[in-house]
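Researcher: We're reviewing a set of sequences before deciding which ones to prioritize for further study. For each one, I'd like a predicted 3D structure that I can look through quickly. This is IclR family transcriptional regulator. If possible, include the structure in token form so it fits the rest of the review sheet.
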Amino acid sequence: MANQRTYGSGLVRDVDLLEVLALPEARDGLGVSRVAELSGRDKAQVSRALATLADAGLVSRDEHTRAYRPGWRLFALATHATETHLAHLAAPFLRTIVARLNETTHLCVLRAGQVFTLRSELASHAFRGLGWEGVGVDPFTTSPGRVLLSEWDEETVGQWWRTFAGAAAHPLPDLPGSTVEPPPLTLEQLTGKLARIRKRGYETVDEEFEPGLVGVSAPVYGFRGDIVAAVNVSAPKSRLGERLPAAGRFTRTVADRISAALGAPG
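Model: Here's the predicted structure for IclR family transcriptional regulator, in token form for your review sheet.
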């Protein structure tokens, strides 16, 4: 028991250091002396603790300034925890859409330029096929992808689109002979679609991602007011095609409810 209490106490002290590095003052990093001062701990102890946290990837140290800041693993853990919470919170709302539209529904996020599905809820008739959890897809031809890009300013969208377009002509370094597919839309077409999403609050696709498949998506906002996910409904065109506008409006309504549950402003 004594060893467990000692370990727990040490863990709490390390968490205190991480909280210091999350302060606004630490935006450009903090040195050991300042971290010790803010945490009220001995400088030598803080130095050893930060070195251990750096080895674990929880903090990083600038080689030139010797300042510490939160590390890559801390951000990865935070992202995973946030997405897990989001998927759990959204589940009953997704089931509401399934009950109303009787179509497969997904909760999607943007990672490294691709759209990933966090959670899916299947309709009773279960339009199945490929399971989308953990599979990255092109954001340009998907309604959730465009929704997730819709809050970006035109300059950022343009830079990202040009990077994607430029990569299409070159082989991938780790996959000899393979290439990145070029964007299916011109930049002008893409910016026009993003503007429409901002105006009406949802996006539709009609056989752009896959022949015979249509879909709608609407944005989910986090407590900071930024888009954190997209709610998507996908189905064969024969079933959902004529209902796309109505499905889009209902999906937007449910996405707004999820946003409210996350504490989104407004």
